[in-house]
Amino acid sequence: MDRIKAEVEGHPVVLFMKGTVQFPMCGFSSRASQALKAAGAQIHSVNVLEDPEIRANLPRYSDWPTFPQLFINGELIGGCDITVELFESGELARMVTEAQKPA
To answer: What InterPro entries does this protein map onto (predicted)?
Structure first.
């Protein structure tokens, strides 16, 4: 749980996904990462397929059962459907821009 917290708090935009942004291993992870890229996000991704401990504990940490999971500024935003809806409404770009502003 400490590792998950460190990932979430250490980066403005974190996507826990199956695979990587360059090589997503499921359609939901692919769509979420594409929406983030299109919104201008600098994505820090965590491949849950390579880390069984994070894969097992993240649903308990976030109280969200599926992958991918998007966190912005330490807050769970949601999975693929929510990420795509936010992108389509223009809200995701605003959220990402705010999160990535230098302090």
So the answer is: Glutaredoxin, GRX_PICOT-like, Monothiol_GRX, Monothiol_GRX-rel, Thioredoxin-like_sf
